[in-house]
UniProtKB/TrEMBL annotation:
InterPro entries: Coatomer_esu, TPR-like_helical_dom_sf. The lineage of its organism: Eukaryota, Viridiplantae, Streptophyta, Embryophyta, Tracheophyta. Belongs to the COPE family. It is a peripheral membrane protein. It holds the Pfam family Coatomer_E. The keyword Nuclease does not apply. This is Coatomer subunit epsilon. Gene3D superfamilies: Tetratricopeptide repeat domain (1.25.40.10).
Length: 293
């Protein structure tokens, strides 16, 4: 009989965006008795990544010391990268130093964090250099996201098939399935919606699940339902970037003012893709006006 997966609940909460629940339920007796085990280290990595997802970067930076194991050092670099935009170059330099060490370069968490940071940098080829070999569901799921960003849904589908061979029913595999369905579009959107609906029936509702359903609704033209789902998500977390971004899109579709949601997004998440695109569009518009004047 296989040993029970002590981290199943913690992983599930993290993957579905229930970050505070992941933190609150991370005290697992068997791991507390053996704090140096691989499971305990993965638990700590997931807890700190949950704090990062909640924006508590400084807590992570303060608590992870220079003597911590490689996976936690990598997580600390992610917190530093996200908390100090003007120090990005030094963080990436430190990350590359870790990756250059043959003794630790293959560590799955280090490769995952490297892929995540280079995905933020939109340097997809560099991200794939570390993630493409796969080896874990997390790495394959990140590959799916990277290929979707590259508009290569064909490669994303290949990564999904690998995940399905490993564990078709795993939460991360189901999420990746939904991402690919949304990227492919057409009749697949309904299938993606059903995946998020299944999550909402099995687990507590999160912003991630609500936004997943809302995006599917918008793509199927059901903007009323999308708006309702996004308002529910906003009530759960008034600063969630994806909720605010999707509410901007939804409001514009209805002909409503999107300025409040956009201003909230600018204040809370100035590095968000939508904020950068809007700024770029405004600059282009201003240049066009000046060239005509």
């Amino acid at each position: 009989m296989a040993a029970p997966d002590l981290l199943f609940g913690l992983r599930n909460n993290f993957y579905l965006g229930a970050y505070q629940a992941a933190i609150n339920n991370s005290e697992i007796p068997n791991l507390t008795l053996n704090p140096s085990s691989d499971d305990a280290l993965e638990r700590d990595s997931l807890v700190y990544r949950s704090y990062i997802a909640l924006g508590s970067y400084q807590l992570v930076i303060n608590e992870i010391h220079s003597s911590a194991p490689t996976p936690l050092q990598a997580v600390k670099l992610l917190a530093l990268y996200l908390s100090t935009p003007h120090h990005k170059e030094s963080v990436i330099s430190s990350l590359k130093d870790l990756l250059a060490d043959a003794a630790i370069a293959t560590n799955p968490t280090l490769r995952l964090i490297a892929g995540t940071i280079f995905l933020h940098e939109q340097d997809y080829n560099e991200a794939l250099k570390y993630t493409h070999p796969g080896g874990t569901l997390d790495l394959h799921a990140l590959n799916v996201q990277i290929f979707i960003k590259m508009n290569r849904s064909d490669h994303a589908e290949k990564q999904l098939k690998i995940m399905q061979q490993i564990d078709e029913d795993h939460t991360l595999t189901q999420l990746a399935n939904a991402w690919v369905d949304i990227a492919v579009g057409g009749s697949k959107i309904q299938e993606a919606y059903l995946i998020f609906q299944d999550f909402s029936e099995k687990y507590p509702m999160t912003c991630l699940v609500l936004n997943g359903k809302a995006v599917c609704c918008m793509l199927m033209g059901n903007f009323d339902e999308a708006e309702s789902l996004l308002i529910e998500a906003l009530n759960k977390d008034a600063k969630d970037p994806e909720t605010l971004a999707n509410l901007v899109v939804c409001s514009l579709h209805f002909g409503k003012s999107a300025s409040r949601f956009l201003n909230q997004l600018k204040l809370s998440h100035p590095e968000h893709t939508l904020v950068k695109r809007m700024a770029s569009a405004e600059e282009s518009f201003e240049r066009a006006i000046q060239s005509i004047a």
